[in-house]
């Protein structure tokens, strides 16, 4: 009887032990099988979270605009024509002593230009050209002295009137200095030079009340018109 109870007790202990062990294994396996699922879900959540964070930001480039280029209007500068003292004051609007001073100041610069243009021709082998050069230098240097004296009571040389004429004369002289035929270039240049002197001198009539200025102007017109006729004959050959 006692042995039977002991045997039954041992069997019960074995049953409990066996039952408990499989239960523990089941739980362990269940937990192990659940672990990958949880890991997979966590990984999926991380990927989804990463996808949500990783958003593409569109890049926009500012439009490139080119500033319009504007060119300043071109201005042509040239030497004024030989009319009534080009580049100086308008002699046609002057009367009396105002005319005399402006006229004489411009003519001094004009004559100085003629002298400078004529000096190289003093060495010309052409006797006619050399004769013109000598006559121009002699006559116009004498007239420069005369005009300088006439300017003294009028306030002296008006530099504002003389300077533009002086610049024009220097420009004319520069064009004849390197000519292939210096003699012909000299004569060709003296034609318009003389014409501008005649144009200015002819304005004295009716504007100047000074007898000496009027006499000088008349002499300039007569002398230079005669020389211009000779120049044309020479160039026509």
UniProtKB/TrEMBL annotation:
<dbReference type="InterPro" id="IPR005183">
    <property type="entry name" value="DUF305_CopM-like"/>
</dbReference>
<feature type="compositionally biased region" description="Low complexity">
    <location>
        <begin position="51"/>
        <end position="77"/>
    </location>
</feature>
<feature type="region of interest" description="Disordered">
    <location>
        <begin position="29"/>
        <end position="93"/>
    </location>
</feature>
<feature type="domain" description="DUF305">
    <location>
        <begin position="65"/>
        <end position="151"/>
    </location>
</feature>
<protein>
    <recommendedName>
        <fullName>DUF305 domain-containing protein</fullName>
    </recommendedName>
</protein>
<feature type="domain" description="DUF305">
    <location>
        <begin position="167"/>
        <end position="234"/>
    </location>
</feature>
<feature type="compositionally biased region" description="Polar residues">
    <location>
        <begin position="29"/>
        <end position="48"/>
    </location>
</feature>
<dbReference type="InterPro" id="IPR012347">
    <property type="entry name" value="Ferritin-like"/>
</dbReference>
<dbReference type="Pfam" id="PF03713">
    <property type="entry name" value="DUF305"/>
</dbReference>
């Amino acid at each position: 009887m006692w042995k039977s109870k002991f045997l039954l007790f041992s069997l019960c202990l074995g049953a409990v032990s066996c039952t408990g062990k499989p239960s523990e294994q089941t739980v362990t396996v269940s937990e192990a099988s659940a672990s990958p699922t949880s890991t997979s879900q966590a990984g999926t959540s991380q990927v989804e979270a990463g996808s949500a964070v990783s958003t593409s930001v569109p890049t926009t480039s500012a439009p490139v605009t080119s500033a319009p280029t504007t060119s300043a209007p071109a201005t042509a500068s040239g030497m004024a024509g030989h009319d009534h003292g080009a580049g100086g004051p308008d002699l046609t609007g002057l009367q009396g002593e105002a005319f005399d001073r402006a006229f004489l100041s411009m003519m001094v610069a004009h004559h100085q230009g003629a002298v400078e243009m004529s000096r190289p021709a003093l060495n010309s082998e052409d006797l006619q050209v050399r004769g013109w050069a000598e006559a121009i230098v002699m006559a116009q240097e004498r007239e420069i002295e005369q005009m300088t004296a006439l300017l003294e009571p009028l306030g002296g040389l008006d530099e504002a009137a003389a300077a533009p004429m002086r610049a024009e004369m220097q420009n004319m002289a520069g064009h004849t200095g390197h000519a292939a035929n210096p003699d012909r270039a000299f004569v060709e240049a003296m034609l318009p030079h003389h014409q501008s002197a005649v144009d200015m001198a002819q304005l004295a009539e009716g504007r100047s009340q000074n007898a000496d200025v009027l006499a000088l102007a008349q002499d300039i017109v007569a002398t230079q018109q005669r020389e211009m006729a000779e120049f044309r004959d020479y160039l026509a050959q």
